[in-house]
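INFO  loader      accepted 1 record
INFO  loader      residues=109
INFO  predictor   begin
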Amino acid sequence: MKMSAIPFGTTDWSAIAPSEHPGETGKALWRTQQFGDIRVRLVEYTPGYLADHWCEKGHILLCLEGELVTELKDGRVSVLKPGMSYQVADGAEPHRSRTTTGARLFIVD
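INFO  predictor   done
INFO  writer      dumping tokens
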């Protein structure tokens, strides 16, 4: 990832209206900023959320609140708690997320 032509700025995430993205169960609320090719999101998954697809997009993801379970298509499972992160490259390993309790995440992709 190359970051260029992004002037210094701050983001008040509470001022960004969320967009709703339904999962197989539950929903995701995204507050999104776009900086050229870089998307930055504050995402909240409702309790019981299960993604409705296998994602192949690369991300750097930090769990801020709750607990997030990420399943890889090859069967591996990772559990993130607040203060934990994961990273995966574009097209590297299909993955999908779920949460029983709900989760709040900071994601760069």
